[in-house]
């Protein structure tokens, strides 16, 4: 099993990203990580 969790260190008005912006970044990074993991598992 693999668990991926992305959280923001700053969740107040000082954050440089909105929740929607953070969600897009987290989704992109998570997708890249899963794709890389699948490739590595497929090639041993």
What does this structure look like?
Helices cover 55% and strands 0% of the residues. It has one helix and no strands. The protein is elongated and about 45 Å long. It starts with 18 loop residues before the first helix and ends with a helix. One of its GO terms (molecular function) is adenosylhomocysteine nucleosidase activity. Keywords: Glycosidase, Hydrolase. This is 5'-methylthioadenosine/S-adenosylhomocysteine nucleosidase. It comes from Salmonella typhimurium.
Which key terms come to mind for this protein?
44 residues, mainly alpha, 55% helix, EC 3.2.2.9, adenosylhomocysteine nucleosidase activity, glycosidase, 5'-methylthioadenosine/S-adenosylhomocysteine nucleosidase
Regarding quaternary structure, how should these chains be classified?
A: single chain
Shape: elongated
Give Rg in angstroms: 14 Å
Main sheet properties? none
Give the percentage of residues in beta strands: under 5%
| Uncertain stretches of 5 or more adjacent residues | none
Number of helices: 1
Beta strand count: 0
């Amino acid at each position: 099993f693999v668990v991926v969790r992305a959280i923001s260190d700053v969740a107040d008005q000082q954050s440089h990203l909105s929740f929607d912006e953070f969600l897009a970044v987290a989704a992109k990074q998570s997708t890249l990580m899963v794709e890389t993991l699948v490739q590595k598992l497929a090639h041993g």
